[in-house]
């Protein structure tokens, strides 16, 4: 199953609005007969790829075991139902990690069992679900999964007092950010970051990567036609206020959104309206690369699902903090996180954390 999870991860950023799925087919003695993963929406599903790989290698899969990260689908969309493909191939046992929560595709396990296939679910479900967090979030909550990435010094500064921020972290950390971009459907920044850094936001040095949608949150449509983010290296969406003047941006993809309500902790656009728009466009995972103010607005909206912080062994003592106003005024209301990974990247530390279930609940005395 861990091999299947690793296979699924190869397609992160390329399958939306579909999930990432991996499959391994094993012979009676545990020999790998075939492997596959879902590579693109509309392409063969993982089970079909694995069956084809086994066939191409000359293996007989009758009575074999299929190990798959997601319950085999039970419906016909752009491809046929995987449950039926496994039955037709003569697979004798199916072990899957996560049950499919969608109304259309669920029921594959029942179909397999009814056909006499030994079926078991739940193996390494937590690991497989973590790998499919973006798709599961979209299905269960109707919005994209949001990963907030930031770079800071050890004293938490995202820039110096004079506004300079290039480069706080090392080349190793910056290269890793391109991995995050390649795994995301959309990369989001605010107008402040655009003015300060003129970022390009496209993926570099990742072979076969699908370029994410570049999203600029620009309430007053202050972006200039010469901004690097408006080139043709990747698609770009500019989110502006409902009454912003965009006549200087002919041909640009622009969406008009309402302003955030009172008490939202900032005066920008409504975060949930933005996420709803992106979800409607097929975006299932968002990499938030904006500055402190934009990050604060997402935290205040309860719309951050994972945090990746790149910490450089440097001190500034002044300058903007990595996170702006998030509407948190007291320690008991702090957004508590669970650290899930710590890694060294050159001289830097990369810390990955997720909000705890009771992240915003006040502690009892």
Automatic annotation (TrEMBL):
UniProt cofactor(s): Zn(2+)
Give yes or no: UniProt keyword Hydrolase.
Answer: yes
Q: Which residues bind NADP(+)?
A: 151, 193, 197, 219, 291-297
Q: In which pathway does it act?
A: Cofactor biosynthesis; riboflavin biosynthesis; 5-amino-6-(D-ribitylamino)uracil from GTP: step 3/4; Cofactor biosynthesis; riboflavin biosynthesis; 5-amino-6-(D-ribitylamino)uracil from GTP: step 2/4
Cofactor comment text:
Binds 1 zinc ion.
What this protein is called in its record is Riboflavin biosynthesis protein RibD
Tell me yes or no: is Metal-binding among this UniProt entry's keywords.
yes
User: What residues does substrate bind to?
Assistant: 165, 167, 181, 201, 204, 289
**Role description:** Converts 2,5-diamino-6-(ribosylamino)-4(3h)-pyrimidinone 5'-phosphate into 5-amino-6-(ribosylamino)-2,4(1h,3h)-pyrimidinedione 5'-phosphate.
Which gene is annotated as encoding this protein in its UniProt record?
ribD
A GO MF term? diaminohydroxyphosphoribosylaminopyrimidine deaminase activity
- Domain CMP/dCMP-type deaminase, residue spans: 1-120
Q: Which UniProt keywords apply?
A: Hydrolase, Metal-binding, Multifunctional enzyme, NADP, Oxidoreductase, Riboflavin biosynthesis, Zinc
